[in-house]
Amino acid sequence: MLTPLLLRIKASSLAVFIxxxxxxxQPAERKLPYYNTSDFTPHFEKAVSDNFHRIRPFSxxxxxxxxFTEKDMDGKICVANFFxxxxxxxxxxxxxxxxxxxxxxxxxxxxxxISHSVTPDKDSVARLQAFAKSxxxxxxxxxxxxxxKEEIYNLGRKFYFVEEDLGEKRSSDVxxxxxxxxxxxxxxxxxxxxxxxSLSAMQNLIADIRALEKE
Length: 215
Known about the structure:
7 strands; Glutaredoxin
C-alpha cells in the first residue's frame, strides 16, 4: 500500500509528464516565407521591405464580364493558377483541386481564387462562362480571367514565377503550361508555390492559407 508521501510524489510526477506530453503535442506555429525570384529562395519577415516583390498592376476580364485588377487582390489571400478551357491534360485535375479550395473556403471572404487563361484568344468571356457553369465555379469565390495574352504571360512568368525561365527570354509565342498554384498574401506578395496535381500539396496549401489568415 502506498504511503501519502509516495502518493504525492506519484501524482506530482504524473502531472509533470502530462505537462511535458501536452507541450510536445502542441503544433509549431506555421511561418510562411516570402519569395521574390523564380528559384523560390525563401526570405523571412526580417528580410522583407516595403518594395519587396509583389504582383504588379494589371487589368483583365473575369468570366462574369467584370474587370479584375490588382486592386481586387489587395486585402485578400489569393491562389492563382494558369489553365485553358480546352486543355485535355493537366488542367482537368487542376480544376478539380481548385474546386476543392473553393468548397473549403466558400464562405471565407478573405480568400480569392483566380485562374488565368493562357489561350485568351480562344477563351472569350462567353466560353469561360460556359466552362465555369460546367465545373460549378462559384463566382463569389473563384474567377476565370481572360484578356491580353502578353499581359497574362508576363504576369505568369515574371511575377508569379509559375514557369522558371532558366535564363531564357520567352515571348508570349512560347506556350505557357504549368501545374503550379501560387499563394499570395493580402499585399500581393508570394508566400508559396504548390503542385496543382497533388492532393498532399493541396492539403499543405489549405494549411498555409489558414496560417496566413492568422498573420
